[in-house]
Amino acid sequence: MSHQKVFDQFKERAENASPLGGTLKFIVDGNAVFINGNGEQNTVSMEDLEADCTISVSTEVLEKLRDGELNPMMAVMGGQIKIDGDMGLAMKVQSLMG
User: How many CA within 13 A on the CB side of residue 92?
Assistant: First the structure.
């Protein structure tokens, strides 16, 4: 999956979800997707900015999470997902996964 497709999927889901109440950055195969959830609506960009929570993941793992083929907690425990920062925000990611 291309970075543009990953970005488009996050943008669609984030803009239709409740504001996260913080900033969240996904690093997917080295490419950033930044979600600012501090306003009345989540906004999404490809900027590599500082965030309250950063989640690093591969495209392959992201697709498995999205399709329900991989348990998020098991992926974190197995080192397939790395989380740095606000764990409370990380817990809200499920609302962006579909």
Answer: 21
Q: Tens digit of pLDDT for each residue in 6-24?
A: 899 889 999 899 999 999 9
Q: CA-to-CA distance for 78 and 97, rounded, in angstroms?
A: 19
Could you give the CA distance from residue 72 to residue 31 in angstroms, rounded to a whole number?
20
- The pTM of the full predicted model, rounded to 2 decimals, is 0.90
**DSSP classification of residue 21:** S
In order of their start, the domains of the chain are 3-96 (3.30.1050.10)
Contacts 24+ apart (CB under 8 A), 45-49: 46/3, 46/7, 49/23, 49/25
